[in-house]
Amino acid sequence: MTQAPARPKAARRQHDREIVLLAVPAFGALVAEPLFVMADSAIVGHLGTAQLAGLGVASALLMTAVSVFVFLAYATTAAVARRVGAGDLPSAIRQGMDGIWLALLLGVLVMAAVLPTAPALVALFGASETAAPFATTYLRISALGIPAMLIVLAATGVLRGLQNTRTPLYVAVAGFVANGVLNVVLVYGAGLGIAGSAWGTVIAQWGMAAVYLTVVLRGARRHGASLRPDAAGIRASAQAGAPLLVRTLSLRAILLIATAVAARLGDTDIAAHQIILSLWSLLAFALDAIAIAGQAIIGRYLGAGDAQGARDVCRRMVEWGVAVGVVLGALVVLARPLFLPLFTSDALVKDAALPALVIVAVTQPICGVVFVLDGVLMGAGDGRYLAWAMLVTLAVFIPAALLVPVLGGGLTALWITMTLMMTVRMLTLWLRSRSGRWVVTGAAR
Questions:
Q1: For 212, which of 64, 354, 366, 434 is 20 to 30 Å away at the CA?
Q2: What is the pTM of this model?
Q3: Which residues contact 37 (CB under 8 A, 6 or more apart)?
Q4: Average pLDDT value for residue range 419-444
């Protein structure tokens, strides 16, 4: 039996170069997104506590409403990248346009649902009597930007599929700057208060959507791709995204359950949990950037019919995920004396957070493998397996998490269950990657 030849260093360098060129701009764009909320919070916070509380409630509702449709970016990336790999750019852009039309349709439906129900939604989230009017005002105005936000998601997926993550970075940075300027002008200059903040964000979001549409439309004209809505194509985009919606909702459920359990542990533990969760989310951006590169590169290789190339780049990205996870874990350990004081001066909260912080640091290599393989399978269009795998993970996590307060465990025990959750995800994804069943070549899966 002959031994398989070692992977050439030149091939590894090529994979590394592709990963870096796609992942670094993707990371910048990912980080720019939460800065919108931070900028709004910083500006509105000077209006008063009630206004800031209202913004917090409205922003949470908006982010929840929009984040469940992140499949618009993921599914579109995979579909477009396959056609790019197959050398069919007109078909790739046509597929992207179907995703954008689907985003517009869903955005209008969500906007139509939020506008009349804004007061009820705010009340459901438990806003105080003083904060509720501000939350309702902000939510109603910001709902006008939901179609733009979903268009941005889908168009970002188109550009990622076209192996372009720089344009989304430029648009995200420009949108952040425009949002900040508009907020200051409308909130203070025009004296519109929290309504000015909402209008500034809506204008910035539609501006970003307009830029994305301009870029995609230019590509469509250049390659002779049709711009008209195609019912069959939109339906296909929805069918491809449905399993990823199940995956995303399951992950959201896990995070909500973890927060609910932490709340039952007491004020100290829930405060510490929010600090740790914010750090965990920040670290996820770095790992998700590699996953985004994986979606684009794997889709292109499979579209080109290069099954071995897809396997090789998958292996290399897993190595990247582990390496980045080790680096992030080490940074968390080294920075912990500086990190915790940024969020709290309460010694009890610090004591509760420290063991959980160590758990987060140690498990970053596991997270690296999970994020990378998640991106690989998305790029392969293996959404159905991802949905089932996340449902299995959810089924394991729920009883484990609910047992934490019953057995008298604290925040450390809760984050051990979070580690269990990530370990189950890693095992399910690793088994799928090893099976090779995700390797389906061709312009369409």
A1: 64
A2: 0.87
A3: 59, 63
A4: 94
